[in-house]
């Protein structure tokens, strides 16, 4: 199968002139694809050549048909990289304000990490509330209590 033809106005080199300067952290592929005006049904195909290492290996392990589905490709790559909501929770909780940091960038980073941790687009307000309460509950428990919760699999206070 050949790569889809990208209309003149959708070519990355045409879109770069309108793109803002790159932030200090890498952009998610969705943001790059949106800036380049790529059609969402072409994202997986157009981003595939830029994958490296574990992400590339995960992509190569997907069937040809599944490799056309961006959400499926993204899920397979994140799984291979062991990136989960817990990863983003840890990054959210561990983010520090370094010397010379820009307040708006730090605030945006916190917002992005929080969204990726809590996944508000996939869960209702009640689930989000339970998640935050559970985390705080586990934080204030003595270590024996945390160990018991871990062993028994209880996931609510």
UniProtKB/TrEMBL annotation:
Q: Where is this region: Disordered?
A: 1-28
| All copies of domain SCAN box, residue ranges | 89-149
- Read off the InterPro entries from this record: SCAN_dom, SCAN_sf
Q: Which SMART domains match?
A: SCAN (SM00431)
Q: How is this protein named in the record?
A: SCAN box domain-containing protein
Q: What is the lineage of its organism?
A: Eukaryota, Metazoa, Chordata, Craniata, Vertebrata
């Amino acid at each position: 199968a050949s790569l889809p033809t990208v209309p003149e106005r959708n070519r990355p080199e045409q879109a770069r002139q309108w793109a803002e300067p790159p932030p200090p952290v890498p952009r998610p592929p969705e943001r790059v694809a949106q800036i380049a005006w790529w059609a969402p049904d072409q994202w997986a195909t157009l981003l595939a050549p830029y994958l490296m290492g574990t992400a590339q290996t995960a992509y190569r392990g997907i069937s040809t048909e599944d490799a056309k589905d961006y959400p499926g490709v993204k899920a397979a790559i994140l799984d291979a990289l062991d990136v989960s909501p817990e990863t983003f929770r840890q990054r959210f909780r561990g983010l520090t304000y370094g010397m010379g940091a820009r307040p708006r960038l730090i605030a945006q980073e916190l917002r992005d990490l929080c969204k990726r941790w809590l996944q508000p687009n996939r869960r209702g307000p009640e689930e989000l509330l339970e998640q935050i309460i559970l985390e705080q509950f586990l934080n204030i428990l003595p270590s024996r209590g945390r160990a018991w919760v871990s062993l028994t699999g209880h996931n609510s206070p």
